[in-house]
Amino acid sequence: MTIFEKSVKGRKGFKLPEGSVSFEGKDLPDHLIRTRKLALPELSELDVVRHYTELASKNYSVDKGFYPLGSCTMKYNPKLNEFLASLEGFTEIHPYQPVETVQGALQLMYELKEALCEITGMDEISLQPAAGAHGELTGMLIVRAYHLSRNDTKRNVALVPDSAHGTNPASAAMAGFEVVELKSTKDGLLDVEELKKHLNDRVAVLMLTNPNTLGLFEKDILEIAKLVHEAGALLYYDGANLNAIMGRFRPGDMGFDVVHLNLHKTFSTPHGMGGPGSGPVGVKQFLARFLPVPLVRKSKDGSYYLDYDLPESIGRMRSFYGNFSVLVKAYAYILTMGEDGLKRASEMAVLNANYLRKLLSKYFKVASERTCMHEFVVDGSEFVKKTGVRILDVAKRLLDYGVHAPTVYFPLIVHEAMMIEPTETESKQTLDQFAEIMGKIVDEAIKNPDLVKSAPHNTPVKRLDDVTATKNPIYRYQ
Ligand SMILES: *Cc1c(COP(=O)(O)O)cnc(C)c1O
């Protein structure tokens, strides 16, 4: 039932002192004055609390249960960081305030920038982009500005591996590049021979993520970087998932020139369903002059200021200075974890992924037998052939057991893929339980396939008709 259907005429959730406000709209122009009564639901405070509590209980979140959504790093975000971001000193400031009055906020941004430079091995960072894909676009525009600044106008090709996150080719195309796809080796790595064939004086950039979307470390990365640079192109690092490498190794040391991060995956901001994100972009010194303006800087007297004096900047990517509350959480996370803590988080993320990979290889083929990083991909094609149950069905059946499904049918190079990222914040018991549930579902798929094919059975919403939802979407309640 919607909140409008629960409305009872005349019911109220508040009481204002009589006559404390009187406003008849006299000072407003006629066309701004409402002619009809606003159709608001009429409910008591308790009605409203119950309504939203019920909705919240129908929702699934990482605070409710295991959420192994590959490539998304749905890890636990410490509530302490939420508390810190909600402090009045952070929430009650305005971006138009004179900089002398917001020195603390600028200091936080400056120090966060320094920490992220240290973590990524980059020299300068913009905190402005509001999401991963937004960071990619920013990075691609910087690549473009760099080549144009050298009058190297024919470089209009962006090379992207076939295993890449879909936002990579999309961002490159948005920045005006022609996207050329590179085939992976059968082990799921970038094919160096294939790369050599494609490198020429039209290539502007190679976009990579390492570990890649199969959760594998591109072991030839130093050679790849050398080849790309010798060909006059730049190397871009999709750092959306830094969870496997924080404190262990740095994109800057692997030869990358530009990197974006997803603070809302690795650095303590809950995400999913379109909440505020942050996709800072870091660059090596020779690209710093192209970053979006303004940059937060520190003057000799120790005060902080906003530097707009970058004549070659690609311009603004977003209003103001980024999603500030996300920056506060990332800063708090980095400080509370410390260097050792971040390193340990990566180690545990990788250990958890490998432990679960081993457990699940009892039931499924794993796309690569190699030790994985923070995530791994299950290749369900044999399972599908044997049982007639699809990986989508397995994903839906997991919901009945109170677990969020992993990412399915991605990366595209593995058929019937299931991409699993347990993250460092899950216990061994949770991983064991998940593997046990998977075992049960495999068993059901053999003995009672219809049960799995018609799942979910216990959720507030049953199986959706994906095709109709895509072809004939209904966005509003009618
Ligand atoms: C999540 C993700 C992105 C995109 O990030 P958004 O914030 O959703 O735009 C890009 N690349 C990889 C590898 C990702 O996992």
UniProtKB/TrEMBL annotation:
Q: What cofactor is needed?
A: pyridoxal 5'-phosphate
Query: Where do the Glycine cleavage system P-protein N-terminal domain residues begin and end?
Result: 25-302
Question: Which keywords does this chain's UniProt record carry?
Answer: Oxidoreductase, Pyridoxal phosphate
Q: Which Gene3D superfamilies match?
A: 6.20.440.10, Aspartate Aminotransferase, domain 1, Type I PLP-dependent aspartate aminotransferase-like (Major domain)
User: EC number(s) for this protein?
Assistant: 1.4.4.2
Instruction: Spell out the reaction equation it catalyses.
Output: N(6)-[(R)-lipoyl]-L-lysyl-[glycine-cleavage complex H protein] + glycine + H(+) = N(6)-[(R)-S(8)-aminomethyldihydrolipoyl]-L-lysyl-[glycine-cleavage complex H protein] + CO2
The organism's place on the tree of life at top rank: Bacteria
Q: Residues bearing N6-(pyridoxal phosphate)lysine?
A: 265
GO CC annotation, single: cytosol
An annotated GO BP:
glycine decarboxylation via glycine cleavage system
The family database entries (CDD domains) matched by this protein are listed as:
GDC-P (cd00613)
- Entry-linked NCBIfam families: PRK04366.1 (NF003346)
Annotated family: Belongs to the GcvP family. C-terminal subunit subfamily.
Q: What is this protein called?
A: Probable glycine dehydrogenase (decarboxylating) subunit 2
Q: Which organism is it from?
A: Pseudothermotoga hypogea DSM 11164 = NBRC 106472
Q: Lineage of this protein's species?
A: Bacteria, Thermotogati, Thermotogota, Thermotogae, Thermotogales
